Amino acid sequence: MQKAVARLAKARRARLADVVKLLPLDFEVARLDVAASTAGSIIVDLQPHVPAADEDRDRLAPAGVSWAEIGAVELVRALPEGPEDEESLDSLFSASPVVRRAVSDLIFKLPNPQLDISLAVQRGTGERIVSSLSAIQAESLRDRLQIIREEREIIRMQGRLDGLRTRRQIFYFETPAGAEIHGFVDESLVGVVKDHLDQEVEVALESFVLRNAAGKRSQRRYRLIEVAGQLSQLPPDSELDEDA
Questions:
Q1: What are the distances in angstroms from CA 218 to CA 54, 77, 210, 221, 236?
Q2: Residue 229 — left, alpha, or beta (φ > 0 → left; ψ -120 to 50 → alpha)?
Q3: Strand pairing of 147-165 and 200-212?
Q4: 33 in helix, strand or coil?
Q5: Tens digits of per-residue pLDDT, 112-143?
Q6: Model's pTM, two decimal places?
Q7: Which helix (H) or strand (E) holds 185?
């Protein structure tokens, strides 16, 4: 879990859609210190550990929020709420590459892959976010995350933001043709999506088709990367500018 949280925190600090390499500082700024433990569970604190002077000014966490909390919230929101939450599992495959890497950090090479994984984050605001990943769901994810090829493109369109599943970071969008699509929206865009719900708005979507080692092709998936001129903090690198 520490590796997953550090990876997601670095992505938000550096505003990258993917993070492959982690450095000691990345772990230090998002460190999870064990506060208490019991059989089968641990409690960690999400306090900042590196003074602000040690970081670039434009990479500081929002006031009162640690990078550990930001990374932990991203991880918990990416996972399903329970065994019946197939929609969140589906949405995960249209998340940015760093989110999928972080989930892989959590579920691969487990000492006991037969155990369920339950996570909860108590935010400084008082909000409590929970997820529960069964051993069966984790096994399915391990198979599906072993993707060897992605086909991506950027799509811009005008349409209506039809809905938002806030805690699971899923958006719903009605296209000009009247069809509804849904996919992943990272936390940096949740606020602007809320502000434009049930409104006509211009958006940019990152469209995915995934292939596994056997060549099986996934359904087309979507990630929201821009709403009404506001770009996600996890942009698809330079591809957005090249397609603009």
A1: 43, 22, 5, 8, 20
A2: left
A3: antiparallel
A4: strand
A5: 999 999 999 998 888 899 999 999 999 988 88
A6: 0.74
A7: strand 180-185
